[in-house]
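Try this one yourself first.
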């Protein structure tokens, strides 16, 4: 497995709409290796999700994994692969929370997101699955699915004044929330 190079904002691949994963790709060993490499890259950089455009592959593919130790999470989310995902809101209700992104390094901002959603996607074998997600899990799904349309969390912020460097976040915001 290998750690992949992460594309940052400014690289056109981050802003391009990704193309759907074709049926024939699931049996391709290179596709399966790509999924494994994305997992390794996400873990290496302490991410909870990674979308293929972020590693220069314009495909509707994302991975996510939320460790139980993550204090933003209500629950642990095991390693999950989303291929050609479709998100449907379960309610209109939104909540605001902090997000960061490997393609927008060193920054965090407050982003309103749907509280609950239904996800329909294919797994890494091409098998369809669906699930309901709430809270932080739903937030990660929305963040990763946005990447597949060429969107980053900055586009979703209601007020850019909360944009904060991680160092200043730790010094001021995190301390205040304790
Ligand atoms: Zn991101």
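Now uncover the answer:
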């Amino acid at each position: 497995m290998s750690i992949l190079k992460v594309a940052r904002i400014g690289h056109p691949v981050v802003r391009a709409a990704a193309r759907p994963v074709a049926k024939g790709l699931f049996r391709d060993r290179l596709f399966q290796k790509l999924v494994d490499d994305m997992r390794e890259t996400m873990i290496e950089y302490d991410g909870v999700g990674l979308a293929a455009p972020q590693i220069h592959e314009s495909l509707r593919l994302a991975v996510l994994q939320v460790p139980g130790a993550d204090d933003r999470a209500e629950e642990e989310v095991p390693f999950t692969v989303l291929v050609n995902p479709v998100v449907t809101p379960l309610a209109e209700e939104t909540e605001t929370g902090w997000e960061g992104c490997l393609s927008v390094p060193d920054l965090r901002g407050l982003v309103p997101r749907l509280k609950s959603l239904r996800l329909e996607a294919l797994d890494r074998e091409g098998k369809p699955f669906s699930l309901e997600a709430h809270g932080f899990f739903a937030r990660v799904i929305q963040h990763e699915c946005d990447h597949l349309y060429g969107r980053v969390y900055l586009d979703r912020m209601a007020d850019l004044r909360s944009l904060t460097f991680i160092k200043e976040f730790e010094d001021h915001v995190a301390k205040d929330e304790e």
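Discussion: The chain has a mean pLDDT of 96. The longest strand covers residues 77-89.
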